[in-house]
């Protein structure tokens, strides 16, 4: 979609299913004299097309379980897609071997939600930060390595004097700064940040967000930024991808999507925030339950909760329209001019 030379990451027709029915034997049942194999899968990502431009901060939003983390992990090569492809700087990366992935392990880094879980409690900060440098830059000697680590620590606001300390000696915000430093020490180009501030105290969320924005500017980073928090998107995101049940329902420049949301789901999502809500719009309450990704609804995955759904919505999966590449929406009602 919207392939330009400026794309760093291109995700095409991406699917991820998790098998949850257990082993082969668990899947076999005996019905009416016949052996039947029943495979149960969670359809976490269903046909996502998305490109991430060099230097941007693309935010992915949507309610819990809609597949945000799965997309991040797929892009990082931590999960194997069921179908589809991922290209990085023009090179297909989803089918590479472990060895072939090594250069990308340096260029692409991930920051997780929980700094408590993502840092090894038994290693000092110096060790945690030096290890990836030693691996990816074997040409550096010990003092050059220490210098690089000290520089990055300084840049995230952690004094290099504290390098001999262990993660538990730091506060939550400091620990997240250390995880950010760990991602930055190897000079990455692209960072997947999965809810990097949501586990932190509200009072320090803005500081850590600013740190990520400064790092982006200074190091010309590209972000895939996963978040629940729409005010963060408004602040930080160049573009926003709105997801519902593993599909993209709206994708475009943040300003456009926020000022003129098109998809009924995006409208409901944005209307929940008083600050963003425009004067004429009221809080839109969605009826119905979020369907499970085990039994995905036919057609548009949102049709069961959509006030504008008609037969076509129940039967056909809507595609992102291509009339305006800066603001795209996947909705039959909009395509047919009904809303
Ligand atoms: N390893 C797994 N095995 C089985 N199901 C999984 C696995 N990982 C994720 N899922 C399921 O895939 C769906 C998408 O999960 P994902 O973690 O990507 O959602 P999310 O949008 O990141 O949610 P949250 O906002 O809560 O972090 C969910 O239904 C989840 O239960
Ligand atoms: Mg998640």
Question: Can you tell me about this structure?
Answer:
With 339 residues, the chain is of the alpha/beta class. The protein has 13 helices and 13 strands. The two termini are 25 Å apart. 39% of the residues are buried. The mean pLDDT is 92. It binds adenosine-5'-triphosphate (ATP) and magnesium ion. Magnesium ion binds at residues 68-69, 194.
Can you describe this structure in just a few lines?
The protein has 339 residues and is an alpha/beta fold. The protein has helices at residues 24-27, 68-75, 98-107, 115-118, 125-136, 142-155, 172-184, 202-219, 230-236, 254-259, 264-271, 311-315, 332-335; strands spanning 7-19, 28-31, 34-37, 41-53, 57-61, 83-88, 91-92, 108-111, 190-194, 222-226, 239-244, 247-253, 327-329.
